[in-house]
Description:
Its EC number is 3.5.4.42. It comes from Paraburkholderia caffeinitolerans. Keywords: Hydrolase. InterPro entries: Amidohydro_3, Metal-dep_hydrolase_composite, Metal_Hydrolase, Metallo-hydrolase_Enzymes. Residues 49-393 form the Amidohydrolase domain. By secondary structure, the chain is α/β, with parallel strands linked by helices. The protein folds into 2 domains: 8-58 and 355-398, Roll (Urease, subunit C, domain 1), CATH 2.30.40.10; 60-349, TIM Barrel. It has helices spanning 85-99, 103-116, 135-146, 169-179, 196-210, 222-238, 260-268, 286-292, 315-325, 331-339, 343-349, 372-378, and strands at residues 8-15, 24-29, 32-37, 47-58, 60-65, 119-127, 152-158, 183-187, 214-218, 245-249, 272-275, 296-298, 364-367, 382-387, 390-394, 397-398. The strands form 2 sheets. The chain has an 8-stranded mixed β-sheet with strand order 3-2-1-4-13-14-15-16, covered by helices on one side. Strands 5-6-7-8-9-10-11-12 form an 8-stranded parallel β-sheet, with helices on both faces. Helix 9 packs across helix 10 (331-339). The longest helix is centred in the middle third of the chain and has 17 residues, at 222-238. It is globular. 51% of the residues are buried.
Amino acid sequence: xxxxxxxxxxxxxRLADDPSGQPVSVSVAGGRIEAIxxxxxxxxxxxxxxGGGALLLPGFVEGHTHLDKxxxxxxxxxxxxxxxxxxxxxxxxxxxxxSGHDAGVQSLALSHAxxxxxxxxxxxxxxxxxxxxxxxxxGVLGTRDTLADVLDxxxxxxxxSGLLIxxxxxxxxxxxxxxxxxxxxxxxxxxxxxDPAGSLNATFALAERYGKxxxxxxxxxxxxxxxxxxLLLDRVEAMGMQGRVVVxxxxxxxxxxxxxxxxxRIARLRVALLTSAPPSRPVPPLKRCxxxxxxxxxxxxxxxxxxxxxxxxxxxxxxxxxxxRYDMRRDDDLALAFDCxxxxxxxxxxxxxxxxxxxxxxxLVLVDAETLAHAVVARPVRKLVVSNGRVVARGxxxxxxx
Length: 402
C-alpha cells in the first residue's frame, strides 16, 4: 500500500553537468521532482536535508540481474561446477531443488542491498522451468510487492533450462506472464534449444499473445550468434516489435570481424543491447553502438550464486567495470559508462520519468565526490538515497522507508 510522502527539500548539492559547481537545491513533492535551482524555500512541514556540498546523481538502474538465484547474505557456496553452460544450468537446478532455496527471502535480501547502494529501478530475470514451475516467480513477486513504494522492479519470465527442449515450459511462461511477469525471456535458440527458428517463433508468438516485450539471453558465439541474431531481427521487423526487444550479452557482436551491417539493422529496428562487460568474453562495441543510435546499457548478471562468486549490488562498481572493459580513461568516457547504469538503462528497460528534471520520479543519490568520473572510480558510500520521494538509505545503511 502506498503511504503518504512528506515534501522534501535537499539543499547544498552540486550537479555533475554544471562546471560552475554552484550549489543548488532540489524540491520534491508527491514522489516527483518539483524544481532544481538555487535557494529553494521548503514548504511548511517539509523534510529538509543539507547535502553538504555532495554530488547529486539520479537513482541507478540495474538492467539485468537474477534476484531469484542469489545466495546474498548466506554461507559461502563452494563452486565446483563444470565449464559448460549446460553444466551450470543443471548444477543450479539440482542445487536449488535439494537445498530448498527460497527465492522470496533471497531476492528481498539482495533488493535491500541494491537500494542501500542507490539502485531505484531494476530488471530481474526469474527462472521458469518444469521442475520449479512458478515457485521462484512467486517469491520475487512477493519482494516486488513488499518494496513497491521504493523499488521499481521489472520481472522477466526466463526459461533458464531452455524452451523447446523441456516440454511444458511454453505453457509455464504464459502462466508467468499472466501472473505478473512484465517481460518474456528467452535463451540461446540454437545452442540450447537446437532449433533457432522454432524457438524464436514460439517466443515471439507468446510475446504477441500476452502483449509483452522480449529480453533474450544470447550467449551464442561468432557466426552462430550472428545467424540467430538475424533470425531474431527478421521477426522483430515482421511482427512490428521495434523498440520492444532487448538482446542481453550479445557476445557475437564483439567477435565478428565486421559487424557494421548487423549493427545498422539493429539500430533501424530499435533493438537494445545489454552488457555486463565481462572480462572473459567478447562484448558489443559500445561506442560504435552509441554512434549508430543503439541503446546499450549495463547490468551485473548474477550476483553470488551457483554460477558465479562475483558481483556486487553496486551500479557505480558496474559502471567502473564497464569503463575498465572498454578501456575508458577520459572523464567523458566515464560519463558514458555511468550512462549505461542510469539514463540508457532506463531507456533500454522502458522505465518512465527518469532523470534529474522537474516532473521526473524523485530518485536521487548523494555522494561525496568531486566529479562524476571521480564517483565512478572511487565508488564512495552513498551519503543519501531517495527513491520515489522517500529517504531509503543514509550512509549506505537502509532507512525506515525501505
